[in-house]
Specification:
The protein is of the alpha/beta class. The chain has one domain: P-loop containing nucleotide triphosphate hydrolases (Rossmann fold, 3-Layer(aba) Sandwich). The protein has eight helices and seven strands, in the order αββααββααβαβαβα. Strands 1-3-4-2-5-6-7 form a seven-stranded mixed beta sheet, with helices on both faces. Strand 3 and strand 4 form a beta hairpin. Helix 5 packs parallel to helix 6. The protein is globular. It starts with a helix and ends in a 5-residue tail after the last helix. Bound molecules: guanosine-5'-diphosphate (GDP). The site of guanosine-5'-diphosphate has 16 residues, from helix 2.
Length: 221
């Protein structure tokens, strides 16, 4: 092929090419889990992003989409790991902390009360935490457990990005209306809530871009 041919091919490809992925996943390594306050955690001096939400909010499905690894959920959903904080090293560049899903009705009250102190201790003690991605089901108002989580987040003053999950379960206009309502309830600007569907992939790149933004932001003092 002559040089002329190559540039013509590149130009025509440009018009159809999707925008570049803001978070290309080159490697993903499961590091281990923190089961108790003060228990093991990776000490790698890498920036960290945590993902939080109620059980069943769609966190594993979302992480599968964000990381483009269908196998991801298998680790965090392994019996015994569901109540841990599970750590993954991504691209040798940052740590992803998958916080235990809270508020599961089938877990006894006593059991479900365990998540608060563990998550709170984690949030307070993580020196390289750059941000938390907080998931909420688009159809439901924040529960008392969500409120407790939001209180922890406000207290540690960490940047928070909200994601409204499962938007495919509503019509486009109903989902937009719910996001507006959630923004009022959470007292945040609407653009701090990313509408997301693991089923359609909608919102994946926006969230990936937000994560990349949190990682590149100056570390809060
Ligand atoms: P987790 O407990 O927060 O990790 O939630 P999962 O990712 O396991 O999802 C809980 C349930 O919701 C599963 O049945 C998923 O198939 C479903 N789910 C998760 N995300 C979506 C979504 O975006 N759309 C729809 N329709 N269902 C979803």
């Amino acid at each position: 092929m002559s040089q002329g041919d190559a540039s013509t091919a590149a130009e025509s490809a440009d018009t159809t090419r999707p925008p570049p992925d803001p978070l290309v996943i080159r490697s993903l390594e499961f590091m281990g889990g923190m089961a108790t306050i003060g228990g093991w955690r990776p000490e790698l001096d890498l920036p960290e992003i945590a993902f939080a939400g109620r059980s069943n909010v769609g966190k594993s499905s979302l992480l599968n989409k964000v990381l483009r690894r269908r196998s991801f959920a298998r680790v965090s959903k392994t019996p015994g790991r569901t109540r841990e904080i599970n750590f993954f090293k991504v691209n040798d560049a940052f740590i992803l902390a998958d916080l235990p899903g809270y508020g599961y009705a089938k877990v006894s009250k006593e059991r479900s009360a365990e998540w608060g102190p563990l998550i709170e201790a984690y949030l307070r003690g993580t020196k390289d935490l750059r941000g938390v991605v907080q998931l909420l089901d688009v159809r439901h108002d924040p529960t008392s457990d969500d409120r407790q989580m939001l209180d922890f987040l406000a207290d540690v003053e960490v940047p928070v990005m909200f994601v409204a999950t499962k938007i495919d379960k509503l019509s486009r206009s109903a989902a937009e209306k719910r996001v507006r309502e959630l923004a009022i309830m959470l007292q945040v600007e609407e653009d701090h809530i990313i509408p997301f569907s693991a089923q359609t992939g909608s919102g994946r790149d926006e969230l990936a871009g937000a994560i990349a933004g949190l990682l590149s932001a100056e570390r809060a003092q």
